[in-house]
Design a protein that fits this description.
With about 575 residues, this protein is α/β, with parallel strands linked by helices. It is about 30% helix and about 20% strand. The chain has 2 domains: about 325 residues, Metal-dependent hydrolases (TIM Barrel, Alpha-Beta Barrel), CATH 3.20.20; about 110 residues, no CATH class.
Length: about 575
């Protein structure tokens, strides 16, 4: 007779509290941890974890599975990378509340801000909801491989209440603010974890229009936060350009003080604004000293873009000659690009000054554009970029980039790191990760499907900062604590992220030495045949969600124990 449902034997247990690694067994019964230590009884399922790292499942608090969670049972790529809980509805974008007349607007907003194909959203979204509670019900009806939680998005909320005035970023009236506050609070009382908004010019609809929330006034945001505070639960999440840091941060402080709710903001180091991240961290530290709970969400590596013939972007995307073949499969594009005369014709068209301007910006940054190998190097040596490599070969960056894209089946990927990649180094990332008031985030799992594949951030956190980098190592116990207990606490989920009796049995068994992120690849598996970048990983031997094994050696077991997490969860008794 078995005593437990599962026993994981002889693992190197890192329990998520920051305590040192220790050799121990982990026993699971009825979806919760029942014992960590020497386990005498047998499990109905026994896992030999000798030599492997045993840790809680990762809690990824910054994803965009808002649409995918309504039609897809596997929340990949996050679930492939050890995430057992994901939180979406970030950055003020989502699909509820919504009136039927506004379906197209919300699709355009998500398509533009998060680079999710509009055709996939049109086919995939059932729109069997209007209110936010109804949207939660729809997510709950779809079985999943991992747990998921949602937040109320300001963009959808503003459009729902204000209509065209909201879309055009007009100032909200007192009545508008009262309605938005009431709907946001009702969403949180129905199970949303919080409320999110965007105040960055980087977020635009697929028509190129700024997000409806870009210029929302302080009284609107503070009013909504105050209404949420009345529920005595929920968190606030903000992304901002901080063009006027004093005014902007003062408003964020007021949102926290008026609501009594914690707030997190997206933070990255920009080479165009040296020191800004340090100044924001100082303001966050001061706010916490004043009793205002604020933290920054920071990335595990650089934030950058992927370029390729099948990606949303490539260096020749605006060239009229390239556009002749742009809709063909990559292999056919590459074959045509190798034909005599095509390259010369394309480069001749690029001599037009108008075309040069259209291709400006990141797509022409050959001095920081790198070929992405397998496994990918996310901290590349600046001298290996396309431009310096081309210069050594006495030719232009465009010429080398063209030849690289045209080779083989046309599946070459270029990586352009920008935020956090300062002078060819990620040292600044380690500094931010180590700060007292930060948590790992910003993976954007489920979003930017043609330009980014950062759902692997939790894996990079472990491999880069506890194993592979010689400088700035942070240690496995610290990093596991940050990606498990601390991220869970940041959104009010106190029942997970720790391997201890009573906690939710979300567990990763990891071959730490063999943990390897693979090169991203394009798949055409979204609704309507939409494409997305996905990224596999080696080294996750077993992943458990609520005590049920969901992945074994990178393959889905077919089990779907994931559930919608409704609201904050208490610490186990």
């Amino acid at each position: 007779m078995s005593t437990f449902d599962v026993v994981i034997r002889n693992g190197r247990v890192v329990d998520g509290t920051g305590a040192p690694e220790r050799s121990a067994d982990v026993a699971i019964t009825d979806g919760v941890i029942t014992k960590v230590g020497d386990v005498d009884g047998r499990g109905a399922k026994e896992i030999d974890a000798d030599g492997a790292l045993v840790a809680p499942g990762w809690v990824d608090i910054h994803t965009h599975y808002d649409g995918q969670a309504t039609w897809d049972s596997q929340l990949a790529p996050s679930s492939w990378h050890g995430a057992t809980t994901v939180v979406f509805g970030n950055c003020g974008v989502g699909f509820a509340p919504v009136r039927p007349a506004d379906h197209q607007r919300l699709i355009e907003l998500m398509e533009g801000v998060e680079d999710i194909p509009g055709a996939a959203l049109h086919e995939g979204l059932s729109w069997e909801w209007q209110s936010f509670p109804e949207y939660l019900d729809a997510v709950e009806r779809q079985p999943h491989d991992i747990d998921a939680a949602a937040q109320v998005p300001h963009g959808a909320l503003r459009l729902h209440v204000m209509g065209e005035r909201g879309a055009q970023r007009e100032k909200a009236t007192a009545e508008d603010i009262e309605q938005m506050g009431a709907i946001a609070r009702a969403g949180i009382e129905a199970g949303a974890l919080g409320f999110t908004t965007s105040r960055t010019l980087n977020h635009r609809t697929s028509r190129g229009e700024p997000t409806p929330t870009l210029t929302a006034a302080a009284d609107e945001l503070i009013g909504i936060a105050r209404a949420i505070g009345g529920a005595n639960t929920g968190v606030l999440q903000v992304v901002s350009d901080f063009i006027d840091p004093d005014t902007e941060f003062g408003m964020l402080r007021d949102m926290v003080s008026e609501s009594g709710r914690p707030l997190s903001l997206s933070l990255a180091a920009s080479p165009l604004a040296p020191g800004n991240h340090t100044r924001l961290l100082a303001r966050i530290t001061e706010a916490n000293a004043d009793g205002l709970e604020m933290r920054a969400q920071v990335a595990a590596r650089a934030i950058g873009l992927l370029f390729g013939l099948e990606c949303t972007l490539n260096p020749f995307m605006n060239n009229p000659v390239y556009k002749e073949i742009a809709k063909l499969p990559a292999a056919e594009q590459a074959a045509i690009m190798r034909e005599p005369g095509f390259k010369e014709r394309l480069f001749a068209a690029a001599n037009d000054e108008k075309i040069r301007k259209l291709g400006a910006g990141l797509v022409g940054m050959f001095d920081r554009m790198f070929v992405l190998g397998d496994p990918p190097d996310y901290e590349p040596d600046p001298t290996s970029a396309i431009l310096p490599t081309a210069q050594r070969e006495r030719r232009s960056g465009e010429d080398l980039a063209y030849d690289l894209l045209a080779q083989g089946d046309g599946n070459t990927l270029f990586y352009v790191p920008f935020l956090n990649y300062i002078d060819g180094s990620l040292d600044v990332v380690g500094e931010m990760l180590a700060h007292d008031h930060t948590v790992p985030g910003l993976s954007d799992g489920g979003a930017h499907v043609g330009t980014i594949c950062d759902g692997s951030f939790p894996t990079s956190l472990l491999t880069m900062w506890a194993r592979d980098r010689e400088r700035g190592r942070l240690g496995v116990p610290f990093l596991v604590q940050r990606q498990c207990r601390d991220t869970a606490r940041a959104v009010g989920l106190l029942d997970r992220g720790v391997l201890a009796p009573g906690y939710k049995a979300d567990v990763n068994v990891i071959d730490f030495d063999g943990l390897t992120i693979r090169r991203p690849e394009i798949r055409f598996d979204l609704p309507a045949g939409g494409k997305r970048l996905l990224q596999k990983v080696d080294g996750y031997r077993h992943t458990f969600v609520s005590g049920i094994e969901t992945y074994r050696d990178g393959e889905h077991t077919g089990e779907l124990p994931g559930r919608l997490v409704r609201g904050a969860q208490p610490t186990p008794a």
